[in-house]
Amino acid sequence: MSVTLKPIPLPLQTLYADLVQQVHGVVERPASLYRRDIAGVTYIYAKRPAGASRRDIFIGRADDPAAGERAAVIEQENAAAKVRASLVSTLRRAGIPAPTTTLAQVLDALEEAGLLRQSVVVGTAAYQCYPAPVGHLLPSAAMMTQDADLATATLAISAANAGETLETILKRADPTFRPLPGLDRAAPPSHFRSAAGFVVDLLTPQFRKNDPNPMPLPALAAGAAPLQHLAWLIDAPMDAAALFRSGIAVRIPQPARFAVHKLILAQKRGGDTAKRAKDLVQAAALIAALRAADPFALSDAFEDACAQGATGWKRPAERSLAELGLTPADLVA
């Protein structure tokens, strides 16, 4: 499979890197401050976006110095958000891919709840974030997705507001989100779907063959499906930004690991030819970009994956390479 990619100009790559650094340094999300008098006492509140909704956040009494300090920080972040929104607009106008509105609202709701800081976005939602980091525009057809996959290495993941379930959080993106029951109706759900068919899946690494499926995430009233190879994929994730509003801070797998993981996954799809073809397209595009931008990272990731084992790692990766018209030597710097 021959892949020709258009390079992204260095100034745009630098703008994106600046945006990533800024969104991952945000202390308070932008919000509109307002005051309310209750029984003769003035209180400060903030109304902030969360997915497709807005949430009222209690800040504190107006005469409380701590509340005043937090309100001042929010005002500062509001000004900074305007600068970031300008960067997002510039990058989008220049052709850097942005998520669909549905995906963006899901990610925004998850970020507002504090879940993206504790997890790694994988799948096509992560692939959409790779063009600027790898310095090349990637095939747009391979970016279309009706799902968002969230991987967590810890089953202690929880929302910033204690007691909030994942269903509650997702409903801020789309009130029609519902949990999908699995084979075991008593097990916590790991799949959530909206009326429009958008699916959010929770994933976690599989460490033992007898791990329950799904693994319980009690704090979210949900579960996570254990997957082989996932621990390797999400090891040492990188910071990225989804181009929505003033930028959404996400963590995604290292692009070289993502590419090699797709090579392996393509051989394990069974009869799902559409997903298999998409795996190969995404792998081929990232391989082409990384061979130009960071060949040593690609080489290291491939060799590290092959060292994990022959049957489940090296052989499927090599079979996918053969389908792409490549050999292992093409991935070695």
Chain-wise SSE layout:
Blueprint: H1 10-23, E1 32-38, E2 41-50, E3 53-61, H2 65-93, H3 101-112, E4 120-122, H4 124-127, H5 131-134, E5 147-151, H6 166-170, E6 178-180, E7 191-193, E8 199-205, E9 215-217, E10 222-227, H7 230-233, E11 238-242, E12 248-252, H8 255-266, H9 273-293, H10 295-306, H11 310-323
Parallel strand pairs: 5-8, 8-10
Antiparallel strand pairs: 1-2, 2-3, 4-5, 6-7, 7-8, 9-10, 11-12
Helix pairs in contact: 1-2, 8-9, 8-10, 8-11, 9-10
Please state the structural category: alpha+beta
Helicity range: 25-40%
| Radius of gyration, whole Å | 21 Å
Rounded average pLDDT: 94
**Apparent shape:** globular
Q: State the total count of DSSP E strands.
A: 12
What is the chain-wise order of helices and strands?
Answer: HEEEHHEHHEHEEEEEHEEHHHH
Distance between the termini: 20 Å
List segments where confidence is low: pLDDT < 50 over at least 5 consecutive residues. none
Instruction: Give the DSSP E fraction (strand runs of 2 or more residues).
Output: 15-25%
Number of helices: 11
Strand count, sense and closure of the main sheet? 7 strands, mixed
Short description:
Helix content is 39%, strand content 20%. It has eleven helices and twelve strands.
Protein architecture, described:
Among the domains are: 32-93, no CATH class; 254-333. 39% of the residues lie in helices and 20% in strands. The model has no long low-confidence stretch (mean pLDDT 94). It has 333 residues and is an alpha+beta fold. It is globular and about 75 Å long. Strand 7 and strand 8 (199-205) form a beta hairpin. The strands form three sheets. Strands 4, 5, 6, 7, 8, 9 and 10 form a seven-stranded mixed β-sheet that branches. The protein has a three-stranded antiparallel β-sheet with strand order 1-2-3.
